[in-house]
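Q: My labmate handed me this sequence with no annotations at all. I'd like to see what the chain might look like in three dimensions before we decide whether it's worth expressing. Could you predict it?
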Amino acid sequence: MKPLLEGIRVVDFGRYIAGPYCAALLADHGADVIRVERREGGEDRAIPNLAKTGEGGLFLQMNRGKRCLTLDLAHREARGIIRRLAETADVVVVNLPPPTLAKLGLDWETLSAVNPRLVMVLGTAYGSSGPYAERPGFDAVGQAMSGAMYLSGDDTRPARSSSNYVDFTTALALANGALAALWAREKTGRGQKVEGSLLRSALVAMNAVLIEQAILGNDRPALGNRGFLAAPADTYRTRDGWVLVQTLGKPMFDRWCDLVGQPELKDDPGLATDPQRGARGAEISAIMAAWCATRTRSEVLAALDAARLPAAPVYTPRETLADPHVVATGLLGAMTFGGLEGSFPLAPHPVEMSASPVQQGEAPRLGEHTDVVLAELGYDAAAIAALRANRVI
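A: Here is what I predict for the chain of 393 residues:
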């Protein structure tokens, strides 16, 4: 079977994660994705810099399987190229503030007039309306404003997740919206705008807690790694590392009681339900911490596994790369990049499909496909040379 999006052209004007990863997901399904990048290279190309090539790990992940066209979007001659790109595209991905998009001719009104079948995917920090619409923002603004940072911290300070989950959630939502819009176009013949924002995605992730706050007004305190829905649910130090343990439901709690030598807790009326156990989480975590402290991490995990209790080692990045399950299942496949010796571990497409091929290609070098893409748009060699001489490309 052919890739699902074979024959679909995506033009990616995005930067960093939300926009580019959305486009990368579409490339995984076979779309022809053209990354439009500044002549000198985008600010996201070298994060974090791998030194040997100038590219960064973020860039190699976000831009796998794309082609690269360099273009000075602010140059007056760039408007013609943007127009031709829009005319030939099925999807345009942008994650710039709305005023900037209008200035560059990348707003929905302009693009849809050029190509009524176009699907425009727009990612912003706060949305395109409201008092914060023109503010810039990255992943952490969503974590901060949704309450996630507060609850992830403790009584001394909030804590930001080092994983940019708000960005990735937004990218996944935008890709889902793009696919839905393409499907709708098959029925109506017209494209539409698909819009998401970092704050919107962060509120989705924290919605259950916000519902609880609105209804109960309980002002839940920050608990760090300790869960509040049940117990034990926390991280615990062993003799040679840390483990994460999560339990939910009375059967799991009863098995935990037997494991740590506290069978009497099974009949404690104050620990009969998950909310009760969550409320006494500090007490239960203290018992678990003492039990773990005298054992190695492998001993703790083996005992928890035998008791059928959800647990995992708290890995360093080095340990993640060496995990036997990750290695055996190929969850971090080997990918190459020109100029980089050997290969690097690339995370897979988020889902596996039994019949439709999903594949990942190399990230492009800066301007690698500029001449080819422009030729496809109808520019001859002389016109391309003139654009280069005028520093448009």
